[in-house]
Each structure stands twice: as structure tokens, then as C-alpha cells.
Amino acid sequence: MDPAARNLYRATSPEYMEDGTPKVTIPSHVLLQGIENQKEYVLGQFYRCSPPPNGLIHAVLNRIWGRKCKIFMRKLDGSRFLFHIPDASTRAWVFQRGIWHVDDCLMFVAPLSDAETFDLLEISTILVWVTLKNIPHRLYSIPGISHIASGLGAPMATYKSRLDPSLMGEAKILVEVELSKAFPPRIAAADKRGNISMVNVEYAWIPAVCGDCGQLGHKASRCLHPHLPNEKVTQLV
Q1: Which residues form the CCHC-type domain (predicted)?
Q2: Domains of the chain in sequence order
Q3: For residues 143 and 207, what is the distance between their CA atoms, to the nearest angstrom?
């Protein structure tokens, strides 16, 4: 072959085991290097559910993440997957959000370097984008929206750093909500005189709840627990 095209080399000479198997000793500095371009890999793990089909995961995440680069995927063990995302800004966005969903199944993401310590924690809250509509003009301010959104959970940020004057009465915000509570479709904003204004709430996404086990983050068709059909009870007359 063309010597200029060669990118591998004879790194060491093998020893031989008793059965003739060649054995090579790997230096510590080589072990520390790990996977080439390791920072470009993202580890994903589904939360307490049977993962969707590989083809569906690949198609959905390429549609969401693949605007600047093509996403390659490899299944590891159980519910863990390895994704190659060569674009740095896309990886930063994926890590910033932290939790994604495919076919109503929650998937956590982490850098590949955290693979040994990547444990799923119990989820009690989740960040959700919501749009508040019909906000009274006198409450269309950061303090006013903060008070209204407190009815949902802990308000985190508006979609834009400043409120858009062309969208008076409407605001897209990020809220940390408790999963043990309902996702109300409206909030009642009341003053000390008893006047009440109803503010409508639209959710960008609400996590699925399994109808079989009651756990958050997957639907019944992805549940790891065996489905127990309802028993028919025959009454003797």
C-alpha cells in the first residue's frame, strides 16, 4: 500500500500464553487516551422503560439534533445508547437540556467520560416550556409573570431575555414543575380586592405516565413490568 496512507504502526511485540495466544501489554498512557475524539460522543440512557426500536430512535434524534451534523448511533447494553455528535454547539445544546424524549420515553444524556458514574436518579421535578396566554396588561412584566408562573412551580426564565412588546399578554417561559402535581390548563391570578383574571397555560410537552405501573416517563407499551390483564369475576346467582 501507499506508505503515505498508512496511519497504524507496529506498537509492540507480543508475548505468548501457554496455549499460544498472543498477549500484548497496553501502556498506561494509551489507556488514558480512550476512544478517539471521545468528547464527540454522548451517552444516552432511557428511564425505566423498554427502549423504542433503534430505527425510531435514530430517525427522531437525527431530525431533532441533526440540523448541523449527521448523528450516528450504537446500542450498548440494556437501555443505554452511544451517539456520535461531531458538532460542538449541538452537543452543548443536548447536554444543556439533559433530558429528551423519544416515543414518550424519557432519555437522560451525559458525556461518554461519565459512563462509569452515570446513574439515574429519582425524578421529582422536570423543566417544561409553557406559554402563558391572556396575561393582564398590568401583569405583563417580569415580576408579574413570576407571580403567575409560581402557580405552576419554580419559574426559571423567559424564552427571550426581554418581554416582546409585540406579544403583549403572551409569554413563553421555562418552569420547573413537580411531577407529583397535575399540569393545570389555567392559573387564577387574584388581587387583594378579590378580582380574578384567568391565565391560560399551554405546555410544549407533558411527560407520559404509564397506565400499568403509574411511573413517569413511558407509556404502557414500553413498560418493563409485565402487563396484568383484568381478571373477569363471575358472580354465582
Answers
A1: 210-223
A2: 38-117 (3.30.70.330), 125-203 (3.30.70)
A3: 28
